[in-house]
Amino acid sequence: MEQNTVQILPDATAKSLRFNKDGKFSIMHITDTHLDHDNIEASVWLIAAACDREHPDLVVVTGDNVQNDDDAAVTKKYIDKLMTVFQTRNIPVAITFGNHDSEVGAMSREELMAYYNTYSCSVSVDEGPLLSGCGTYHIPILASDSNEMRFNVWVFDSNDYDGNGHYGNVKKDQVDWYKAKSESTEKANGKKVYSFAFQHMIVPEVYDALIECKRRKLYSFEHINNKGTYYHFDPNGINFGTLNETPCSGYENDGQFEAMVERGDVLAMFTGHDHTNAFGVKHKGIDIVNSLSSRYNRDAFSSQYGYRMLRVDENNPSVYTSDVVHWFDMFTLTDAKKAEKNGDHFGAKLMKDVIRRGLREKMFLSFCRTSGALLSGRKVTYKH
Ligand SMILES: [Fe+2]
């Protein structure tokens, strides 16, 4: 006799947030902070400065957050430093994980999430054992003057690695959860609710939005798992930003992107993982967007790292703005002098370092943009 199996999926709904009285809502995307002994003070100082500059309504942190130490107390110390930035400023923060968070070290994803959630500013959810990974949930954004859900934020754990040691992806059970939740949200609201999706790993469909070439050329990058095949921006496509390295998607594909296309409620998905990529491509109606790493250390690129700001209006939620802010965009020498005068010697020294290294990297970025635009035969709009 045939048996009906009922798929049980967790609710995984975070605490709701609300559009401001002026109808606006802003989200700061922070990713790949890789906080460790060497970069913790500088990275956290810069993230705090970014929060003071932007006053975001929500921060989403998409993985490879903390270098998980063998000693859980050390890992917790790094988490404390990061979360204190948001807690002291009363900024809600949504956490998910990357491939490195629980790769080595003393704490599992569930233990890490439980610790992040000891901070009241965290709106993150451990969805429980019914879904793969830890940190797949959604955050309803309600209208400024009613309890109508006017926007939605999906957060996915794109897992760490597949069975062959390649980068992970959002698994079928998580895709099923998204589809069910997307449908029930539409039903409850009487219409589709526009949304963003955030996760660590980019989807493999990013390659479908690029142009394949058989030979490596300037600004082309080899496919993550199809060696000998190179890709660059499509001169006729809608793309923006700077593609500096191969998009490192998972090898496996359980249909997340196609499900989003089918459901039609995701405007854009934002990922990290590829530290130097700050670009977006539009594919099948969805913007696939990668944000820069948000750490600061001595590595060659880190003064061009930074964060992404997203802004939505409740009166027109199908349109959004997106801006990449590099660390070097944030300060002038006058700011450094002011900090010095106020006794913030650490901040003053850091700002000067960012400005000095930023000058070189600005020239490099400007070269990439100009030559990339010329090579692709069109004027590329580098609106991030
Ligand atoms: Fe990563």
Characterise this structure.
This protein is an alpha/beta fold. The protein has one domain: 4-Layer Sandwich (Purple Acid Phosphatase, chain A, domain 2). It is built from seven helices and 16 strands. The strands form three sheets. It has an eight-stranded mixed β-sheet. Helix 2 links the parallel strand 3 and strand 4. The chain is globular. It starts with 16 loop residues before the first strand and ends in a 9-residue tail after the last helix. The C terminus is likely disordered.
Short characterization:
Helices cover 28% and strands 21% of the residues.
Strand order of the largest sheet: 1-5-6-7-12-14-13-11
Number of domains: 1
**Which ligands occur here?**
fe (ii) ion
State which percent range the strand residues make up.
15-25%
Report the CATH superfamily.
Metallo-dependent phosphatases
Low-confidence stretches are 376-384
Radius of gyration: 20 Å
Task: Give a short account of the largest sheet.
Answer: 8 strands, mixed
Shape: globular
**CATH class bucket:** Alpha Beta
**How helix-rich are the residues, as a percent range?**
25-40%
> Can you write the helix and strand succession as a string?
EEHEHEHEEHEEEEEHEEEEEHH
Mean pLDDT: 91
